[in-house]
Every structure is written in C-alpha cells, then in structure tokens.
Write a structure and sequence with these properties.
five-stranded mixed β-sheet; globular; 5 helices; alpha+beta; Aminopeptidase
C-alpha cells in the first residue's frame, strides 16, 4: 500500500500523543511523558501553534510522526527547522517511512528559507546510523545542555528581584 504524508490537524491530537508515547516507550522512558492530548491540541494547532506535526499513514492508519518547530540562527540571520520527535511504528520500519518524513522535513526547511535542519539523538539511540545515512552529522563539538524541574525553578527564583 502507498504511504502518504500529511500535516496533522487538531482532530489528530490523540494519534500524535499516542505516537509520542510510543517513542518514549521505545527509548525506555514510557513513564516520562507528562503531556496530555489537551496539551497537544493547545500547543500544536491554530494560529499560535508552537510546533507542527507530520503524519505518515498507510491505509488511513498512522505509522509515523515527525514533530518539529522553528528556531532562529542569529549567526545565519535565518530560521532553522528543529525536529523534536521522529518515530516510525515498529511494524512499519523498513518501509522507508523515516526517509520519507525526513525528505519532507528537508523540503519544508528549504521552502521556509531555513539555514539548516537540526535534531538531537541520544548516544544510545541506534537511529543515529539512519540519520548519518541521510547525511546528518554530529554538530561539531557542541554539547547540548538542559535545565528543568526544581533546578529551573531555583534558577528562576534566583533571578527575580
């Protein structure tokens, strides 16, 4: 059967959320997902959407998801497309679904005048081979950092005057 790609709409929020949960489970973090379908609806659709979602479907069934948003490169003076999540359901791996999603994301990136497409992959993630096969490379010696939860609260509290 043919695989089709389309942008998700608000009615797809339960499917988008289910695929996000599946991705977390595959990566061993099933209990870490705190988002809800309502969060996906609120933040992923409408004029103020914070992210966008592409669904890959086969016979009307979602078999893949690419969730992305735009960041800005001050050095390039142009936007960049950041892929937050990419998942292909286990039963659909090997059908080039991931490649189709990445090609679509590359086209969207070019159409929007983005200077680059970026994503982060865990050092343990076997999908690194897939991304490298598409031409993506590790971002030099840049090391990602993050802060969340109580540490973020402490930082914010310390900056309030």
């Amino acid at each position: 059967m043919a695989i089709t790609l389309r942008h998700a709409v608000a009615d797809d929020a339960p499917t988008v959320h289910a695929l996000i949960r599946e991705l977390a489970a595959v990566q061993g973090f099933a209990d870490a997902v705190r988002s809800t379908v309502d969060d996906i609806v609120r933040d992923g659709f409408g004029p103020g959407a914070l992210f966008h979602s592409l669904l890959a479907e086969e016979d009307g069934t979602a078999i893949g998801l690419a969730l992305y948003f735009y960041i800005y490169s001050t050095w390039e003076g142009r936007p960049a497309l950041y892929v937050e999540d990419l998942i292909v359901t286990d039963r659909s791996r090997g059908k080039n679904v991931g490649t189709l999603l990445m090609r679509k994301l590359a086209g969207i990136s070019n159409d929007r005048g983005c200077s680059k497409l970026e994503l982060s992959v865990s050092a343990r993630n076997t999908a690194r081979v897939f991304y490298e096969g598409l031409g993506l490379s590790q971002k030099g010696d840049w090391i990602p950092y993050t802060i969340s939860g109580p540490a973020l609260d402490r930082l914010a509290d310390g900056l309030e005057e």
